[in-house]
Specification:
This is Na(+)/H(+) antiporter subunit C. This protein is mainly α. It has five helices and no strands. It starts with a helix and ends in a 32-residue tail after the last helix.
């Protein structure tokens, strides 16, 4: 079982690294099932009854219900994210008739621009003292409302 879990994790990670959204979905589902298997393997030795052994009704004879609850929670989370990924795949197919993620040319141009520092690109270089909103900013947005002005807005 450990080997099957390891193979499922490895295949899931491999599929999630692809640009195809369908393969990402399949990889995520494999990883979800491998996680369920991991939780099941950590619950204890196989073959034990789900609640009690029928002889010893003390806490020693009871099995731990936490792994079962965690597996049910993991199933629900995997189902919800799978539904979200399916909606993304469907929307991508309807818009561009393609479900592969492509590099954005403009993003690549900006990333490879000469002389740009990462802090400057992220806007965290500290060179701006004010925000970009309003007319007091260094580079105000054209047509932005000045929220500092006192005027009757009724």
């Amino acid at each position: 079982m450990l080997l099957a879990m390891g193979v499922m994790y490895a295949c899931g990670i491999y599929l999630m690294l692809d640009r195809s959204l369908t393969r990402v979905l399949l990889g995520f589902m494999l990883m979800g099932n491998a996680t369920n298997l991991l939780i099941m393997l950590t619950a204890g030795p196989p073959g034990r009854p789900p609640l009690t052994d029928g002889v010893d009704f003390s806490p020693v004879g009871m099995s731990d219900p936490l792994p079962h609850a965690l597996i049910l929670t993991a199933i629900v989370i995997t189902f919800a994210i799978s539904a979200f990924l399916l909606a993304m795949i469907y929307r991508s197919w309807r818009l561009v008739r393609n479900e592969n993620l492509e590099d954005d040319i403009e993003d690549m141009r900006i990333a490879f621009a000469q002389g740009r520092d990462t802090a400057e690109e992220a806007g965290t270089s500290g060179e701006y003292d004010d925000t970009e909103f309003g007319d007091e900013a260094e580079a105000p947005i054209p047509g932005a409302l000045d929220l500092d002005e006192e005027e009757d807005r009724t």
